[in-house]
Automatic annotation (TrEMBL):
Protein name: 3-oxoacyl-[acyl-carrier-protein] synthase 2
Protein family (similarity comment): Belongs to the thiolase-like superfamily. Beta-ketoacyl-ACP synthases family.
Record domain Ketosynthase family 3 (KS3): where: 3-396
Pfam families: ketoacyl-synt, Ketoacyl-synt_C
GO biological process: fatty acid biosynthetic process
GO MF annotations, alphabetized: 3-oxoacyl-[acyl-carrier-protein] synthase activity
Organism: Phytohabitans houttuyneae
Keyword Plastid among record annotations: no
PANTHER family xrefs: BETA KETOACYL-ACYL CARRIER PROTEIN SYNTHASE, POLYKETIDE SYNTHASE-RELATED
Keywords from the named record: Transferase
Entry keyword annotation includes Transferase: yes
Length: 402
């Protein structure tokens, strides 16, 4: 990848905070915990009835933004795409340049089948059967996509993989504009899956806390628009951030458990630093995967400490305590927050942290209030079941602008 070429020109989001990036960032600044009772499904038979749900009012407001679709995830993605293109100053149609679409997801449109659960024979018309490519169809209804359209599903690292694929396409000249998104919606299957693994928190997600009990599902969609920096400047605009590097790995240790040494994560962090020619101490914030599960957080903290060993402990926090775990959407939501953190000079805190886990002593866990100050580089990482890992390094300027 040409390290100086790929930049973020626009961002968009639909999240448990509501519609738009402004609502999402305001919730982060205000330290609001957005998990709560679920209104969409009857969860009385599950160990928790809480998740991070897009508010019903925001779902209703989609009617004025995007066409109807049976998949909420598809509508979230279409709305986030329109916002991101508008933020970039790009029209949805009749624009110059080739636009490609790169989307990560875990469940795709499969949650449309949830409405048949408990009704005997499949109670959903054939036309609603889950078709993952329908996520892309919803975007095509509102945006002209004349380049490649790719759906990626390597588990919960999918959002970062979409950013990596789009960045590579821009750097190579395959596309002029890459719409890189992630999307997922609440699903009864996901609740059942996490219940079977005893990985659901009953009340609050507490990443890196000694008393953490598990995670909670979330939902939404987020989009980064990527272009060459000179193309953005040609429209009289400045990049919101640069994609300094990306890296992927598969440690293939266990279907559901991370490698105990964090081998895949360490490899991707070191590769990102090498590709961007960035030193460990140049990373101002590590936006952690941080699911709040006993299995994940200690391994992740130790891996980050090892990979970013420098003069100081790496600064680390997770926003999942506020947003829940939005699966395929999580990494792109976190990348959007990373872009905003660079712009506003705020490292988000571990909002629900009460008793830091001693196993995480090798990293500098950000206090709940967050930290004000210059944020020049953000390392955002994501795990997927099966051992997939993808890390993205974002920066305020080009890699060598120190």
């Amino acid at each position: 990848m040409d390290r100086d070429s790929v930049a973020v020109s626009g961002v968009g989001a639909v999240s448990p905070a509501g519609l738009g990036v402004h609502a999402l960032w305001r919730a982060i600044e205000d330290r609001r915990v957005l998990t709560g009772p679920v209104t969409r499904y009857d969860l009385s038979r599950y160990p928790t009835q809480r998740a991070a749900e897009v508010p019903p009012g925001a779902v209703a407001a989609l009617d004025s933004l995007v066409p109807p679709h049976e998949s909420l995830a598809a509508r979230y993605l279409a709305a986030a795409t329109l916002e991101a293109l508008g933020d970039a100053g790009l029209p949805a149609h009749r624009r110059r340049g080739r636009l490609g679409l790169f989307v990560g997801t875990v469940m795709g449109t499969r949650p449309v089948l949830d409405r048949a659960i408990g009704r005997g024979p499949l109670g959903v018309p054939d036309r609603t059967f889950a078709r993952p490519e329908e996520l892309l169809t919803a975007v095509r209804r509102v945006v002209t996509v004349d380049g490649p359209a790719v759906l990626l599903a390597p588990g919960c690292s999918a959002g970062n993989e979409a950013i990596a694929a789009g960045a590579a396409a821009v750097a190579s000249g395959e596309v002029d504009v890459a719409v890189c998104g992630g999307a997922d919606e609440l699903s009864l299957e996901v609740f059942a899956f996490f219940t079977s693994m005893r990985a659901l928190a009953a009340d609050t997600i507490r990443p890196f806390d000694a008393g953490r009990k598990g995670t909670m599902p979330g939902e939404g969609a987020a989009v980064l628009v990527l272009e060459r920096a000179e193309r953005i400047a040609g429209r009289g605009r400045a990049p919101l951030a640069h994609v300094l590097s990306t890296a992927s790995a598969a440690d293939a240790h266990n279907l559901t458990q991370p490698h105990p040494d964090g081998a895949g994560l360490i490899a991707t962090i070191q590769t990102c630093l090498d590709r961007a020619r960035v030193e460990p101490d140049d990373v101002d914030w590590v936006c952690a995967h941080g699911t709040g599960t006993p299995a994940n957080d200690g391994v992740e903290a130790r891996a980050v400490a090892k990979a970013l060993g420098g003069r100081r402990r790496p600064v680390l926090s997770s926003v999942k305590g506020q947003l829940g775990h939005a699966e395929g959407a999580a990494a792109v939501l976190e990348a959007v927050i990373g872009v905003r953190a660079i712009a506003h000079g705020l490292v988000p805190g571990n909002v629900t942290l009460a008793d830091p886990d001693p196993e995480c002593g090798g990293v500098d866990l950000v206090e709940p209030a967050g930290r004000r100050g210059p944020v020049g580089r953000v390392l955002s990482q994501a795990y997927g079941f099966g051992g997939a890992v993808c890390t993205v390094l974002l920066g305020k300027g080009a890699p060598d602008a120190r």
